Amino acid sequence: MSQLLLLTSPKHCAKKGLDGKKLNKKFLYALCTFLLTMLSVVLLVWVILHPAKPQFYLKDVGVYQLSLSSPRALNCTIQFTLVSSNPNDRVGVYYDGLRAYASYKGKLITTESALPPFYQGHGDTNVLCASLSGAGVAVAPSFRYDVSRDEIAGQLPIKLRLDGRVRWKVGTWISGQYPIDVDCSIIVGFAPGGWPASPITTQGSHCSTTL
């Protein structure tokens, strides 16, 4: 009985290896072409639609408490109504992780208040209400001096801030998250005798939005 041995030549192995490399290159080329095409389509849609930043308007603000319980401890209660609008006709906006707080000369005077996430459709308008409070908030020794100077002027400038993240929605496509920062400035008048001891309502204005 004889055995038949099948031997493969080095030349044959090299040919098979080259064929495999060609297939891998074709696959990678096709994958790259597909990804570039999809990216180009998304960018083209994005450029054509050119989404505008959401707009915010501070409708009203109520300052119900603003006083020092000690030279370095502030008590503050502020309620405000913010109107948000989406100026885009073809782009929706998702709002996530929104936080509101108040500050005076760059320093927090209330704790942060979380707002629920929501979706804003094309051209839609939403009303956001928040109540901000701070009990015994630590302030710098210079705080009373700064307020005293503003009291002489009769006006106390306060910043209402809203920050979080937004996602754009075009058709069924939803973008990644982008940080958003809304800055609203209000001027609080002093009550007779100094710090406001009764509710003071101020009219708001348009807010600046950074994306």
TrEMBL record:
Residues 84-184 form the Late embryogenesis abundant protein LEA-2 subgroup domain. Its main location: membrane. InterPro entries: LEA_2, NDR1-like. Pfam families: LEA_2. It is a single-pass membrane protein. The chain crosses the membrane at residues 27-49. It is found in: Membrane. GO terms for biological process: defense response to other organism. Keywords: Membrane, Transmembrane, Transmembrane helix. One of its GO terms (cellular component) is plasmodesma. This is Late embryogenesis abundant protein LEA-2 subgroup domain-containing protein. It comes from Spirodela intermedia. The lineage of its organism: Eukaryota, Viridiplantae, Streptophyta, Embryophyta, Tracheophyta.
